[in-house]
Amino acid sequence: MDTEPRTPSHAGTDAANPEERAVYVTGRLALLVGVGVVPVVLLSAAAGGSAPVAWAAAGGWMLVCGLLAALDVSRAAAPGAVRVSRTAPARTRQGVPVQTALTLDNTGSRELRGLVRDAWEPTAGAPPDRLRVDVPAGERRTYQVPLIPRRRGERRTGFVVVRARGPLGLAGRQARIDAPGAVRVLPPFDSRRHLPSRIARLRELDGNTSVQVRGQGTEFDSLREYVRGDDVRSIDWRATARARTTMLRTWRPERDRHVVIVVDTGRTSAGRVGDETRLDAAMETTLLLAALADRAGDNVHVVLFDRVVRGRVSGVRGSALLPALVDTMASVEPTLIDTDWDAALAQAAVFTTRPSLVVLLTALDVAAASRGLLGALPTLTARTRVVVASVTDAGLPALAAERATSDDVWLAASVERTLLDADRLSAAIGRLGADALAAGPAELPPRVAHRYLELKAAGLL
Q1: Are residues 294 and 437 in the same domain?
Q2: Which end of the chain is less congested by CB atoms within 10 angstroms, N or C?
């Protein structure tokens, strides 16, 4: 998931389209015009000269400046003679600094001095400053363009603009040169910091420490001698008789269960909570739960769905699971349509022919959008265990408490209604046989992982 080695990307053409070439002037030319025109006019007026003479002198000075600018343009390097190529990593994670590079090959006969702007998308996080370049004739130079991607998906650039300044610095030539490139930005997976503690707990449940559990979903692991404090219900009396010492059966949670994660990509997933969307928080939850379930030996299936499948990962285990997940999630964005929950739960039902857990990641504070979920949920809870998890805004209770102004009162009323809807929906989901979890973006991933471990510990999964 970290930044991959950089590989050459698409190379630019060695010439710009005619309509994309232009001449530009610098602030130095404006300063030169002002330095000459203003004194001429002021001195002519102070000497009592006529206005036509003063303006004629000023016009003459401007003509001289124009000729100097034209000379400067003629002596500037031809930007269309520059060949542009770039190197960029194929993938990186959101928020992780990454280096890309532009290589300029000056095939012209004059030295290229000037500026280059690389046209990355704003969310790619390229620096706003233009690159100052100096490439001698017949040589090439490479310049670094650092990126700090602020959004998932394909972050692209289509071209660079090369400005070749003349020797006087008054004017020059510029051209747009096609040089497409892209970096695939993966979800950040910040919740990975919770993984070591959850894996340690999983090892306890798996019998690697002295903690042993037994439930409906556990299987026999091994025999060991009884020690004070063990559950006497786990004593194996036949083995005790054979060994002439008290022997205890140990149990471990069953493996090879199916954990199905359905991520809602409908319109409610576009809502922002803090600095990210609900969909981003759902992806963080998915990655943490998937990594934990895979370590537990369970089969993980992930479906991103609204009315059609936006992404699916199934049948992948071990070290290949997380790369497959982040690569699938990278380009998925919320869609402004209501989710078809009958179809979504039908997708989940495909994987629930064996004992399993289904986790639905959606919003539970929009009553109108949740009617379809409540109507379709009983068909799923009748055959498997279901957890419905939602991202909430931790700042809502504070807004509900504000009463200083009339605007605060209206806002508080709206927040109270939202919180009331969320409580009612959670209660309705509980009555339908599913577990409802709600937490902020940072708290939801570990909370869902903790619930998964609770089910394992209780022998319910």
Answers
A1: yes
A2: N
